Amino acid sequence: xxKATKKKHQKHxxxxxxxxxxxxxxxxxxxxxxxLQNKEQVQEKPPKKQEPKVQLVPTQYLPIYKAAEKKYGVPxxxxxxxxxxxxxFSTMDPMISPVGAEGPMQFMPCTFVGWSHxxxxxxxxxxxxxKEKEDPVVIHKYGGYGVxxxxxxxxxxxxxxxxxxxxxxxxxQNGAAEGNLKEAIYSYNHSDDYVNxxxxxxxxxxxxx
Length: 209
Known about the structure:
The protein is mainly alpha-helical. The chain is 57% helix and 0% strand. It has 9 helices and no strands. The chain has helices spanning 2-43, 62-72, 76-87, 109-113, 130-133, 136-142, 160-173, 181-188, 192-207. The longest helix is centred in the first third of the chain and has 42 residues, at 2-43. The radius of gyration is 36 Å and the shape is elongated. InterPro entries: Lysozyme-like_dom_sf (IPR023346), MltB-like (IPR043426), SLT_2 (IPR031304). The chain crosses the membrane at residues 20-36. Residues 142-179 form the Transglycosylase SLT domain.
């Protein structure tokens, strides 16, 4: 008789507890769901953006920059910076700008050959015959900046050595050799943003020398 009473009492106690258990189940499920969601969000958090790596100066070009520095007094890292900004070290294809600048260092033909050339007007594309464009005698006659750096008898706007020496010649005559880098770079391309970009890379390349 006592056992039956005890079982009845336990059964009655479970009945009292069951509504509480039913109420707790959704709370437990919701809590578990929130914890899992938070965990997934932490795991799926996107990685931090890495700063783009600076394009290093191709080692095969260093002798050209340094030879031009020796001749014209323009720091090699400034020439490297120009090359980087103008054509990403000659990797752009084609190396002709929308306004008509040509070659690795992006010279306007009339700047390369000389603005005194009879076809040179406007932005400086001109209508210069190819033979005249690379003739050192013609360039000297019209006051251009083109240089035959490799001694092959041609001042070739498309040849890297000639182009770098020509850029050094231009920058030197516009103040770079005296340390007026900003003025010289601005004369190369009349843009403050351009000046800042060239000087940015020049500082980086100087630091890594």
